[in-house]
Amino acid sequence: MVSLVLNAPSPQAWQRFSEILAPALPKPWVQRHSGDKLQKLAVALSATSQDEFYLKLVSHWEKSTSLVLGSSELATPVSDQRFPEGALGLADRMMFLDTLTYLPDDILVKLDRASMAASLEARTPMLDHTLVEFAWTLPQCLKVRGKQGKWLLRQVSYGYVPPSLLDRPKSGFAVPLHAWLRGSLREWAETLLDEARLKAEGFLQPFLVRAKWKEHLAGRRNWQYPLWDVLMFQAWLEDNRRFVSS
Q: What separation in angstroms does the CA of 58 have from each of 79, 224, 229, 246?
């Protein structure tokens, strides 16, 4: 029911509504692209299992097998029968899957590439195996308390770091892809997402890609991440075409 209610208005309607309410809301509640985020939440809330909920949250393309022609879903830690769903609560299950997927395949990759590009050897002391093993023995109430995450770590850190640094809003590394794709990168992206090109290459479903591209350019939806996935594949394919064709 919640999913249906959230999905009823368009992302633009949700965005306008949130902009009207923004002056009266606490600052942490004010989010960029709130319409798209609410629709993403609506999709996730339609899940019927823990793992489906997780996949809907982390997936850029809800049905990737429809995007990639002739494909099937690959085995992942989510589908690995050695780690059956139901053995953990929802929060622990999501942290467990993040540990196996998002951490090594995304966050740590970015850290390694960014640091090595600057000739730096980065270290991740919080991932020392003894510390990770200890953290997994802790009850949820020491990890999340009320609306505050990393509760125990914060309590330890308050003795060494000013609260003003610990309690400030989280700041990510996002860049304005949505605007770049409509502006300075539009011509480059249009070349890679050309419908005739996609059909000739035969890897991706042109209709799905072009539909998202048109909606993004028109400002009806912010499809920056799904489109960036496709653009990175297309750019790689262009650079390695001689190897792929052979």
A: 15, 14, 13, 34
Residue 191 lies in a domain: yes
Residue at a domain's end among 27, 46, 65: 46
* Number of separate domains in the chain: 2
Buried residues in 156-166 as b, exposed as e (16+ CB within 10 A): eeeeeeeeeee
Q: For the ranges 127-131, 173-177, 199-203, which has the lowest average pLDDT? A: 173-177
In a domain, 239, yes or no: yes
pLDDT band at 243 (very low <50, low <70, confident <90, very high): confident
Name residues whose C-beta falls within 8 Å of residue 141's C-beta, 6 or more positions apart in sequence: 151
Residue 8 domain boundaries: 1-46
pLDDT tens-digit profile of 75-88?
777 777 777 777 78
